[in-house]
Amino acid sequence: MSKFFLPLFSFRRPHVLGFILYFLAGFADGLMVPFFPLWAQHTAAIPVGLIGLLFGCYAGGELIAAPFIGGIADRVGRRPVLILSATGVGLGFIALYFTHGVIEAALVLVVIGIFESVLHPTIYTLIADVTPAAEHRHQFSIARVCSYAGGISGPLLGAVIVQSSLGDVFMASGIALLCGAVLLILCLPETRKHGDEPDDEEDEGFAALLPAFRDRRLAILLFWALLLGVSGSWVEAILPLYAHNQLGMSDTDVGLLFTFGAVLNTFGQITLTKLFSRRSPLFIVLSAGLTLILAFGVLLTSPNILALVVAVCFYSLSQMMVGPLMPAAVSQLAPVRLRATYMAALSVVSDLRDSVGPATGTALFAVAYSLPWMLGIPVVVVAALGLGISLSKRSKSSVQNSENV
């Protein structure tokens, strides 16, 4: 069995394969996410107030699995985990194409989430394994650019596919990830070094798989990141429904709107990361919070298509500012032998955001279309202040420790 996990070709820059896999994952998400609410409303006949709950099944599977298998790459290696994860997610999307009922779709989404629970944290771990710590923020920025590049082609292709059937986007998403799994089988070497395995006594129980329960510094960072992420996810989750129901935009136009946001992120991420490279974490997070508040303000005051475009610009800027900070901060906190486990804890926050965010956002939207934007402003203010201060304390502590050494 172990021979199955030996690459046929030895690729000398494994993190580049991680970038490619991130592109394919972004491509698959770009195909599905913009059209999922529309598929749920028109094909599955789900009431608007419940769409977020069905959408949350995707992240719910990740939440179920992450505490138990999120750090498994620290035990069995990065390569087999990535191969099995990409394969499972791809087959899950293809299975979703053949589902007909709401219950069936919910169950398939949970299974997809279980496999995806280890995909992104293990890619981050792979990148951290083979690149210097000083370059992690830059490398994670490149990974995000690859994801955004996939997010450009995904909605573009999706805008064409949905003209025949909304469900076809699931088949295309699944094929993309299966291609990624084949590439990993052929080329990806193992990046976990011998001797980096966690000790048995450090890998027992639920708390060992979620280090947020025992690492207070990490727990604080993750809490504020979750609060900020949930409020920000309202833009992404509600915008398709807002554009379609309030402004009468077509399915194709919604896909093009998401494509525009992905283009901004693709071409702006590296430049913005360099521009903010000498800024303090507090400055970066507060700037991200301010731009997100501006997005909410525009949506509140100007209900028109131009306002949607401006809001997407502000939202994209916010994501570009704060996005690479968290994996870089978590990577610095993590012991090498528990790197995948710490990244899994960050992934749990992402899963909670993707589950709680759409559920709460669409529920608020069902009450009043402006309610998410009104409540989002104070939530972002509190979350940005908390996260910025926590990151600043961690940065000062790291500097003091290096000076003492």
Protein model, in words:
The protein is mostly helical and 405 residues long. The protein is 78% helix and 0% strand. It is globular. The C terminus is likely disordered.
The proportion of strand residues reads under 5%
Give the termini separation.
45 Å
Alpha-beta classification: mainly alpha
Question: Which series of helices and strands comes N to C?
Answer: HHHHHHHHHHHHHHHHH
Bulk shape: globular
Whole-number radius of gyration?
A: 20 Å
**Number of distinct helices:** 17
Report the strand count: 0
Sequence stretches where pLDDT stays below 50 over 5 or more residues: 201-208, 399-405
Largest sheet: none
Proportion in helices: over 70%
Overall average pLDDT:
79
The oligomeric status of these chains comes to single chain
Quickly list its features:
globular; mainly alpha; single chain; 405 residues; 17 helices; disordered C terminus; 0% strand
How is the secondary structure organized here?
Layout: H1 14-32, H2 36-42, H3 48-69, H4 73-76, H5 78-97, H6 102-116, H7 119-130, H8 136-161, H9 168-187, H10 206-209, H11 216-246, H12 251-275, H13 281-301, H14 305-322, H15 325-333, H16 339-367, H17 371-404
Helix pairs in contact: 1-7, 1-8, 1-9, 2-3, 3-6, 3-16, 5-6, 5-7, 5-9, 7-16, 8-12, 11-14, 11-16, 11-17, 12-14, 13-14, 13-17, 15-16
Short characterization:
The protein has 17 helices and no strands.
